[in-house]
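Try it yourself: sequence plus succinic acid, in.
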Amino acid sequence: MQPRQRRHATQPRQPRHAISPALNRVNALPATATLPAVAADPATATLPAVAADPATATLPAVAADPATAMLPAVATDPATARLAAVATLLVVLVTLTAWHPATARRVRVTDHRETTGGNGVDALIPRERREVAPGAVHLPDWLRPDTQRSLVADCRRWSRPGVNGEPGMRSTRLPGGGLMSVRTVCLGWHWYPYGYSRTVDRGDGSGPPVLAFPDRLAELGRRAVADAYGDPAAGARYSPDIALINYYDADARMGLHRDGDERSDEPVVSLSLGDDCLFRFGNTDNRGRPWTDLELCSGDLFVFGGASRWAFHGVPRIRPGTADPSIGLARGRLNITLRVSGLPVSAS
Ligand code: SIN
Ligand code: MN
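Structure, out:
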């Protein structure tokens, strides 16, 4: 089914902010505040299972490949009937394996980007670049598998608690008391509802500094903007200084919200890793329709700027078990969003 076409976005709205240097934080007025979804029950927003060594892995490590684990050992009995039965069973299992989501994803990722085609069903239906709304562009399979793997490794490193008391990846507590179902770690600037600070303490001035924004992500952001808009000059100008790394387990979601705590009109760059998700891209006026639903898969790039910079968007659903475990994430979805804060360096 074709997703609905949304009507054109209205003029982008520039949020207003108040700065509180004493607290080393920058506040957005509630009118422009981001309103992420709250887990229905904070008890369900628990941390994802930790790998064998909790000190070395916060994100889930790779499980045994379910595709290969499904294949039984081949019997060696020479009896013809037995061989026929085994052969039949193998055919059935191989067919089932080919349709297993993780296998299908692997075929698609490998064949679609790096070879001239393959046998996977998905490879027959390449997902095309699409401008969802003016300035909002979806580029499927933008990240190569090896880049996805190294980004997952980076995310795992950023997610660990640090020696200076950095809490690592965690669910954000909302002003109303609810806990977000998504878990987050920030780079460059720490996002809290609803503003940014240079410390990870929600702005009381006593916490450890936020992790540094790495050059690698700035470079990736520049390439993303250049490719999304076919405009190398726009790419070269792009200078993100915020990254939010979000982890979604099978039950996590993010309600429709606007990335409204920045002071810059520069685009938001979004990179997806791991499980597929349903991504909803709405209008700039409110959380209602019109919106466009699209599937974001591992390696996909989504950029929204220009007339779509202040559009509402969210993640209503994750599709558990669709990730290719070879990128190093056993389950769940990671999203990296890059943003330009437009905040004064002196606030740091
Ligand atoms: C976000 O809007 O901050 C995250 C979106 C996503 O996970 O794709
Ligand atoms: Mn957002």
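One thing you can check immediately is this: The CA atoms of residues 199 and 249 lie 26 Å apart.
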